[in-house]
């Protein structure tokens, strides 16, 4: 008992002295541990509260600035990638699709004939259509002119009158002869008036066409045709004037009595009437237009029923049996294309068909095809020449307008 009391005192003395027991240490550890767990459980709640807390104006501006910078960087990166892709494709195209600088592109062509006539009137019938192949001498179209038909009838009647007059003169001067001569004078004067009117119309037509030619609207051929028509009309006026003079002389001689001179004049009148008939018949020869060569009808300009003037083209014929290719060549390359040289060409429209042609024409294309030097020295003006080459053998299905590549 005494010992137990001593131990108890010892324990109490120890506690008093500041040394805790095992149970006290355990309790103090639990006390310390409990606040720490509480603090840890309160941290997420504090974080969530801080996230839900509204941002200040400066923080909001900083946040937007960061977003804009991120978008700008993304856009710049996209553009850089696009530029890199385009540049790589361009470099690839330049390396793999580079054209052959030694090739020259030309065009197939052939002789084209414009069909026209010297008879003006109405187109009443077409015997061909576009795309038809025609032969030389084949009938193409018909033009009807009521005025020319009336002139032809009148010319034949004048011829008959002149012939009858000549017969009367041969039989001697009579009253009927004088009257006939007077009628001949009236008819000759009427014919002269018509010829003068026709000349005036033809002159105006020529002046209009000549003005158009000076402005570059119509071709020189068109102007020449109009000039020829004017010359023919002027000649017709001269013929009509001569007929009037002959008729007046005939009338005078009939009044004075038939003599050797009267007979000669009467014969002359008959000859003039015959010439007039032949003149009108020459116009009527173009009532039917005839093909001047073999070829294909490429264009027909007027429609049936339309009026056409003298010398206007009715249709065109392409002589596809005589094809060639035309190239525009700078003069520094002409040394490789002398006259008579055989060249190799390709025709893309015929499946890149290869063919041989021979150069037969080399001519300069004029000042409008001159390349002017841009340097003050060390260079020169280079002119462009037209070079034509004809196939050595006919090429099937070779048509005007097809591209021809000269290698």
Set out the fold topology.
Blueprint: H1 2-16, H2 22-52, H3 57-96, E1 104-116, E2 121-126, E3 133-134, E4 139-144, H4 146-171, H5 175-214, H6 220-256, H7 260-284, E5 288-290, E6 295-300, E7 307-308, E8 313-330, E9 342-347, E10 353-364, E11 370-371, E12 382-391, E13 403-406
Antiparallel strand pairs: 1-8, 1-13, 2-4, 2-7, 3-6, 4-5, 6-8, 8-12, 9-10, 9-13, 10-12, 11-12
Structure explained in plain terms:
With 407 residues, the protein is of the alpha+beta class. It has helices at residues 2-16, 22-52, 57-96, 146-171, 175-214, 220-256, 260-284, and strands at 104-116, 121-126, 133-134, 139-144, 288-290, 295-300, 307-308, 313-330, 342-347, 353-364, 370-371, 382-391, 403-406. The chain folds into four domains: 2-42; 55-98; 143-287, no CATH class; 318-406, no CATH class. Helix content is 53%, strand content 22%. It has a six-stranded antiparallel barrel. A hairpin with a 5-residue loop joins strand 9 (342-347) and strand 10 (353-364).
């Amino acid at each position: 008992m005494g010992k137990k009391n001593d131990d108890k005192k010892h324990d109490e003395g120890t506690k008093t002295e500041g040394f805790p027991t095992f149970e006290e240490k355990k309790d103090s550890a639990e006390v310390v541990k409990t606040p720490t767990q509480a603090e840890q459980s309160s941290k997420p709640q504090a974080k969530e509260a801080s996230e839900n807390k509204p941002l200040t104006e400066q923080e909001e501006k900083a946040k937007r600035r960061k977003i804009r910078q991120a978008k700008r960087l993304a856009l710049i990166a996209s553009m850089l990638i696009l530029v890199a892709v385009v540049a790589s494709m361009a470099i690839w195209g330049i390396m793999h699709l580079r054209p052959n600088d030694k090739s020259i592109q030309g065009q197939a062509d052939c002789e084209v004939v414009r069909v026209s006539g010297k008879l003006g009137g109405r187109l009443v019938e077409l015997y061909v259509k576009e795309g038809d192949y025609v032969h030389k001498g084949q009938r193409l179209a018909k033009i009807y002119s009521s005025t020319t038909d009336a002139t032809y009838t009148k010319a034949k009647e004048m011829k008959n009158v002149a012939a009858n007059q000549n017969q009367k003169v041969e039989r001697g001067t009579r009253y009927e002869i004088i009257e006939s001569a007077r009628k001949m004078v009236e008819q000759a004067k009427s014919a002269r008036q018509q010829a003068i009117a026709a000349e005036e119309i033809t002159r105006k037509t020529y002046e209009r066409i000549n003005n158009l030619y000076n402005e570059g609207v119509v071709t020189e051929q068109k102007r020449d045709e109009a000039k020829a028509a004017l010359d023919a009309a002027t000649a017709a006026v001269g013929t009509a004037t001569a007929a009037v003079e002959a008729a007046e002389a005939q009338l005078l001689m009939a009044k004075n009595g038939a003599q050797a001179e009267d007979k000669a004049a009467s014969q002359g009148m008959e000859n003039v009437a015959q010439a007039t008939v032949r003149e009108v018949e020459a116009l009527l020869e173009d009532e039917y237009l005839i093909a001047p060569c073999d070829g294909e009808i490429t264009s027909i300009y007027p429609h049936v029923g339309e009026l056409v003037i003298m010398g206007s083209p009715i249709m065109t014929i392409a002589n596809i049996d005589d094809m060639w290719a035309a190239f525009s060549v700078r003069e520094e390359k002409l040394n490789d294309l002398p006259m008579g040289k055989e060249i190799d060409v390709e025709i893309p429209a015929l499946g890149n068909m290869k063919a041989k042609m021979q150069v037969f024409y080399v001519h300069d294309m004029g000042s409008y095809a001159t390349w002017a030097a841009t340097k003050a020295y060390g260079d020169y003006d280079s002119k462009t020449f037209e070079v034509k080459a004809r196939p050595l053998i006919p090429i099937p299905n070779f048509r005007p307008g097809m591209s021809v590549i000269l290698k």
